[in-house]
User: What shape does this take?
Amino acid sequence: MEYPVTATVELSPAKYIDFDIGRYVGHPPANDEEKLRALKEPWTPRNTFKLPVTGKKNLSYQRHWTTRHSWLVYSNIMQGAFCKICVLLGKMQGGCGHQELGAFVSKPFTNWNKALDSLNHHADTKYHKFAVEQAANFIKVMEGKALDVSESINVENSKIAEENRRRLKAIVETILLCGRQEIALRGCRDSGEVGINEPAHNDGNFRALLRFRARSGDEALKNHLLTQNIHSRAMYTSSGIQNEVSELCGNAIQPHVLKRVKKAGFFTELTDETRDISRQDQLALCLRYVDCPSGKSSIMEDFLDFIYVEDVSAQALGNTIVTHLLSCNLDMDKLVGQGFDGAAIMSGQIRGVRTMIAEQYPTALFVHCVAHVLNLVLAHSCEIPMIRNCIGTIKSIVNFFRQSPLRDNLLKKISNQTESSRSTLISLCETRWTEKHVAVERFAEMPPVVCAILEDLQDAAKQMSSSDITVPRTTGRQTQRSNVPGETAEIYYRRNVFYPFLEHVVTEPDARFKPHEATIEEIQMLLPEKTNNDSRTKENLKKIAQTFLGENVGTTILSEYEIWHNHWKSVE
Assistant: This one.
């Protein structure tokens, strides 16, 4: 909108006329640079400029008013005073009712008779103070002394994101550590707060490592754990998050394994079916191949995936294995081997998994797991009487020492005195021969020490057995123990220990089973060969039913019993 210039307009340079505040009333500046220029260098009348007078008193705008109110400017175009801040950065509405703003904002102020009061009133309004704050921030942003709101929000969001990354990094690294060291993540009770203090129960390695890391200087993680009560829904320490991170790690590792397998060309699949702690059947699928990372060949066996299965028939398991390998984009014509344990469903020659897969891919030759075969061979070989007795003796001696801290400490003490390389014995594993072999090997290194201790214990036992057994003193009135006299120690203990024990053995079953004998005898009428439909049987059955099932089941149980009796009579 163009406003006509009156005869009193001073011929000023164009830049000052361009920044007359009147041009921006209802028409904001085209850009921030122009807005900044209008704020800092608005057009102002020079001393030689003749300000128009109005009213009977010939009053006019006074230049010295800007000394107290720096926001005040005069517009030659609009012939009145304005608040440059409210015009450029304020709103067109304000006050309690959000009414349209007038003088100093959308209309020029010309009531010079009441100028001082009006200026003070405008300076105290909320919308003017808010515009002043906006103007100060705008100038700082434009001069590079501060960031604007959007940039400040972005910077703050970036700080929050970076802080969250540091916290999440500690959690992910702890999960990776547990996976790399092959230790369990969770304990018996792993829910609720983690905190930085040790709980009264074992809540798992993962949470314990987090607390250790927080106490060892990781301030980001420490603050994260301490704010758990406030932001408990965003802790990222739950079992679900642990499983998700583990799955993501598996998804990141699996492509590298498949890349090496494809580069090797030929491969063998190794599979074992088992049931996890949730009683869900799953297949553990591994791949065996030849890797040549630096020109030197090495045989690799890498885990590929766990596959949950519902149908554990040979046909279903075979289809599952083939489908999963195909989904990994492996060339099944390069499948040259299958490895399973000796279970019939896996290794059966007629309808086992090996046969299902070999029918589709004839080059996939079955090889029984060598380690499993070796374990079976050694286990059956140990059934030879002399070997079985030897292993039994070793197991008894190992248990003899390990079940008593005193004997185990004695073994360590004597071993140190004889400068033996070993000081402890290892329990024999019942299922894994490799671990059993280590235990037998350890025992074979310690016979001198073991024999010396057993001989000392035997001598001590002989000395104890050669001591005279004395008869306790008896009195006329004894209430704390048996007081039957005996001529010798043997007679005394026979009368006071052996005979009472036999009496308890004979009488205790009668005392415990006699009350239920009649009921048990009557319940036998439910047996097919002892069913009877006479009145006495029905009456007894009614009593038993009322005893075990309640007061109001007599008629019902009799009807059911009659059907039961007729059924078995007809079978006869």
In short: The mean pLDDT is 78. Residues 263 and 291 are 8 Å apart (CA to CA).
